[in-house]
Structures are given as C-alpha cells and as structure tokens.
Design brief:
This protein is an alpha/beta fold and 340 residues long. The protein has ten helices and 17 strands. Strand 16, helix 9 and strand 17 form a beta-alpha-beta unit.
Length: 340
C-alpha cells in the first residue's frame, strides 16, 4: 500500500520568465515559463525550453503562451498544463502513477486573494496535495542565508520578469513591502521600442532579451566592466530590407533610464515606510538585490549612488527564491509565515 501513497516534496519559484523547481536540495528544473499548445485539441506540445524555441516562430496550429504576466497567472489553463509538464520532468521514472506532492511555491508579495487562489488551484490540479505559498521576498531572504526570524531589519529587492518585490523583513514577517509591476519584461519592451524608434529596425522580444543580456546597463559609464558592442540583425521597419546595427551599452542605459528610475522610486518609498530602528539595521546591513534584474550591469552602483546605502547583489540571484522555498519546505511546521 505504501507504494501507491508515495509522496514527493517540491519547492517551486513560479516566475513570469522562468520556473525553477527544487527537489532533495537540488535544482531539478530551470526552464522558461512557456508552454506550446495545439490550437485544435488544446493539448500540450512542448514546455519550457523546447516551447521557447517555438516562441514567435509557430504556425497557425501552434500557440506558444507565457501563462504568467506581471508575476500572476494570466492564463489559468495554460499555467496548469505548464506546471504539469515541468513537474513531469522531475519524476520521469514513474510510469504507472504520479506521486502526490507537497509543494512550497513562491508568489509576489502584492498578490490578491484571487491571485493566490489561482496559484493554489493550479498546483492542486497538477497533483499538489499539500500546497504552501511563500512571498517571494521572504523566500529570497531565506535563500540568501538571512536569519529571517531574528529581531533585525533586512531589505530585499527582488527584480523578476514581471514584478519588482521590495520588502523589509524582521522577526519572521514582512514589516513593509511594495510590489510594482515594473521589472525585466519592461526593460525588454523598452529595448524593443528604442530599436524601432532610434534605428528603424524591428526586433522580436527574444532579440530584445539578448540585447539586454549582452549590453544591458543601468549606468552610462561602466569603466573596465564595459561590454563590447552587440550587432543586431533585423528588418527595416519601413522598407523590410535587412539591417545590421551595432548597439553599445551607453545607448541601452539611456533607453532603460526611466524604468530603472521607477524601481529607484519604489525602493525610496519602501524606505520611507520603514520604522527607524529597522532603517538603522538596513543602513548597517545593506540592501540585497535578487532576481534576474539584479544582473543588470551597474544597477547596484546606480542605486547606491541614488540612495546612499550599500546594495549587495546576491551570490546566485536567479535561484534565491527557489532555494529559499526549498529551505521553507523542510520547515513547514516551524515557519508560521507560510500560507496554506
């Protein structure tokens, strides 16, 4: 009987851009949050990296979907299928049954009750039997190695694909937080718009993402850390003739300036709402940057210049939330901040 009551424990960072799953302290899935469906049958064709290869390249019978937008589920059915597909990657050896799952899932701290219910329902439909939710800044803090239950203030700025989560944490709770729908996707959209407006070249979302990775910057002077120019190839938006445009990091820094300024403003607002004793702790400890946006060149220095508090990029910013969710999974009976 025990064979059929097999249970597996998974921690998941269900992100707008990427979904990461941890099992037995190991990252077992790190895939783009994309699913490809057959329009006629609504059945899944591919998920994760395989689906992203089809993104913006499919024909009329294939629909590639990013089920999460701005950190929340935008397409419930597609999200459920994506979660099933990604979870299946974890236990590919179980051919005759799917194990019941105990799961801890990271969610944006600004999520409404309806949005939290949507995540929980998707997890339960994907065979989750014991589902806990954790706010992403709290998970990121645990993943960094911060003692979140200590009587000391720490600030986390988690810049994901769809949202930027800013939270002050002390005594196992979030004292003040701000969740804004300004993050990596907005930086990508800025680059798309800039390339069309400034260079008259049409670039896809994927190409804009590559530009961000190769020459994205929050500062116009990176000194010795400056990357080489990146050559962008695409059609002229007026004549449709092929173009080659070299792009430097300084012009990308200018085009991202307004979006980065909105993140700066949100951090300042969160600091204004922080009690003085915790504020003093934050000045002493610094502010931690996590999420994919933390990898934007010069962002930590720009924020430090603006706010005059040290900003520290986490050692593995892309996986902090997932790692923290994994630690929380082992402590579900102790951590009172987990939501059921």
């Amino acid at each position: 009987m025990g064979f059929f009551s097999f249970r597996q424990e998974l921690a998941m960072d269900l992100g707008t851009a990427n979904t990461i799953i941890i099992s037995n302290d190991k990252i077992v899935v790190d895939e783009p949050s994309v699913v490809a469906l057959d329009r006629r049958t609504d059945k899944m064709i591919a998920v994760g990296g395989d689906a992203k290869l089809m993104y913006e390249k499919g024909h009329e019978r294939i629909e590639t979907i990013r089920p999460l937008r701005d950190g929340v589920i935008a397409d419930f059915s597609a999200c459920e299928q994506m979660m099933r597909g990604l979870i299946k990657m974890v236990h590919t050896g179980h051919h005759f049954f799917s194990p019941s799952l105990r799961m801890v899932i990271g969610v944006p701290s600004g999520s409404t009750e309806v949005e939290l219910r949507a995540v929980r329902d998707s997890a339960e439909h994907a065979n989750g039997r014991d589902v806990y939710l954790i706010f992403e800044p709290m998970a990121a803090a645990i993943g960094i190695g911060i003692d979140v239950e200590a009587p000391e203030g720490n600030m986390i700025v988690d810049i994901g694909g769809g949202t930027t989560e800013i939270a002050v944490i002390s005594l196992g709770g979030i004292v003040s937080n701000s969740s804004i729908k300004v993050a990596g996707d907005d930086l990508t959209a800025d680059i798309q718009s800039y390339m069309s407006r400034q260079h008259s070249v049409k670039v896809s979302e994927r190409m804009a993402e590559r530009i961000k990775i190769h020459v994205g910057s929050a500062l116009t002077d990176l000194g010795d850390q400056a990357p080489e120019d990146y050559v962008v190839r695409g059609p002229n938006r007026i004549t449709a003739l092929p173009m080659e445009v070299p792009v430097c990091y300084q012009e990308i820094a200018h085009c991202l300036d307004k979006t980065v300024a909105r993140i700066e403003s949100a951090v300042l607002t969160a600091l204004e709402n922080t009690p003085p004793e915790l504020y003093a702790d934050i000045v002493k400890n610094g502010i931690y940057l996590t999420g994919g946006g933390a990898l934007l060149r010069g962002l930590d220095q720009r924020l430090h210049n603006k706010i005059d508090i040290p900003f520290i990029v986490a050692e593995d910013p892309l996986h902090c939330v997932a790692k923290g969710a994994g630690i929380a999974l082992k402590n579900v009976d102790r951590f009172s901040f987990l939501m059921r």
